[in-house]
């Protein structure tokens, strides 16, 4: 199917009729395909989506605290969430990718799909204005905004462990790197999270110290919660 027809089909899915179809074409063009691509549109779309989500959450959750609003926003605008939206649209079928990206399955990659969503929103904005972009975002994020998880579950494990301990007037845990190995491009970290007021600790590994610490904190919190039930 020719590119122009594919673009028109996507515009129909979005409920838009572009006055300047070249904007949508650029939004769907990866840098591997052409020097005229969607990178600048991604920049603009990222800001537009961030504003829309912040506004929608502010209205939808009038009693929510800033921290909860921030966690919801982060969960909705992160790469994985945007890639999920792209898959709902079948956006990968509309992308213009270079030969290398095609061979490596770029149309399935979260980063490529998420960037394309941002670029498409920017194209809608430039073509139809702020209200048009807002309406497009309402459509794209309707399901996610309707199914928001409990904000508490979005806290990272280290924060949840810290709050659990502080709520019981207990000292904060200590994190210690037990092992660090592997080449620079494939590091391995083994970390221990331990308590200072109790002989209890949990070890975990990850490709970065941060990831390993989060995993260790999660395991330690689970151990603590299990022992108190």
TrEMBL record:
Alphabetical list of Gene3D superfamilies matching this protein: 3.30.160.20, Ribonuclease III domain
| Family according to the record | Belongs to the ribonuclease III family.
Per UniProt, the keywords (alphabetical) are: Cytoplasm, Endonuclease, Hydrolase, Magnesium, Metal-binding, mRNA processing, Nuclease, RNA-binding, rRNA processing, rRNA-binding, tRNA processing
Taxonomy of origin reads: Bacteria, Pseudomonadati, Pseudomonadota, Gammaproteobacteria, Nevskiales
What name is this protein filed under? Answer: Ribonuclease 3
Q: Where is the DRBM domain?
A: 156-226
What HAMAP family does the record point to? RNase_III
Residues of the active site = 46, 118
Q: Which residues form the RNase III domain?
A: 7-129
Q: Could you tell me what this protein does?
A: Digests double-stranded RNA. Involved in the processing of primary rRNA transcript to yield the immediate precursors to the large and small rRNAs (23S and 16S). Processes some mRNAs, and tRNAs when they are encoded in the rRNA operon. Processes pre-crRNA and tracrRNA of type II CRISPR loci if present in the organism.
Names of the cofactor(s): Mg(2+)
């Amino acid at each position: 199917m020719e590119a122009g027809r594919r673009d028109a089909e996507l515009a129909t899915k979005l409920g838009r009729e572009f006055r300047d179809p070249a904007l949508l074409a650029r939004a769907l063009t990866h840098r591997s395909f052409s020097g005229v691509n969607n990178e600048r549109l991604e920049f603009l779309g990222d800001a537009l989506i961030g504003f829309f989500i912040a506004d929608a959450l502010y209205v939808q959750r009038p009693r929510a605290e800033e921290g909860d609003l921030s966690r919801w926003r982060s969960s909705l605008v992160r790469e994985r969430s945007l890639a999920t939206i792209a898959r709902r649209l079948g956006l990968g079928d509309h992308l213009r990718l270079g030969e290398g990206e095609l061979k490596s399955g770029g149309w399935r990659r979260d980063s490529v799909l998420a960037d394309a969503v941002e670029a498409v929103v920017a194209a809608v904005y430039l073509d139809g204005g702020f209200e048009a972009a807002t309406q497009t975002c309402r459509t794209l994020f309707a399901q996610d905004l309707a199914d928001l998880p409990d904000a508490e579950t979005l806290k990272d494990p280290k924060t949840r462990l810290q709050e659990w301990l502080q709520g019981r007037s207990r000292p904060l845990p200590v994190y210690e790197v037990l092992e660090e190995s592997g080449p620079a491009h494939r590091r391995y970290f083994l970390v221990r999270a331990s308590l200072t007021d109790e002989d209890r600790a949990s070890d975990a590994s990850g490709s970065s110290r941060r990831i390993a610490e989060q995993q260790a904190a999660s395991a330690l919190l689970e151990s603590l919660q299990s022992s108190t039930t």
